[in-house]
Design goal:
Order of helices and strands: HHHH
Distance between the termini: 35 Å
Oligomer: single chain
Number of helices: 4
Low-confidence stretches: none
Largest sheet: none
Structural class: mainly alpha
Number of strands: 0
Radius of gyration: 13 Å
Shape: globular
């Protein structure tokens, strides 16, 4: 399934925080995703190194730079105060 970037990011916000995804939250995630995507497109070796971590092999049908960028956006989301249980 190929989701629009905004929809994908909104689902990430909702899934991580269990809150309604505000436009500001989606915009912040989108800005981060854009920056990370540009970085991993310029540094494909770093994307490959990131995706080599873990037990599951990455889906070969997904562009490694895109997958690395979304992986890091998800990582950022998981570190928000709204997500962490204290």
């Amino acid at each position: 399934m190929n989701l629009h970037v905004g929809t994908r990011l909104a689902r990430l916000v909702v899934g991580a925080t269990a809150l309604v995804a505000s436009g500001a939250a989606v915009a912040a995630c989108g800005a981060s995703a854009g920056d990370l995507l540009a970085h991993y497109q310029a540094e494909p070796k770093e994307a490959s190194q990131l995706l080599a971590v873990g037990e599951t092999k990455p889906d070969a049908t997904i562009d490694p730079a895109t997958l690395a960028a979304y992986t890091m956006v998800a990582n950022e989301m998981m570190n928000l105060d709204e997500v962490l249980n204290k």
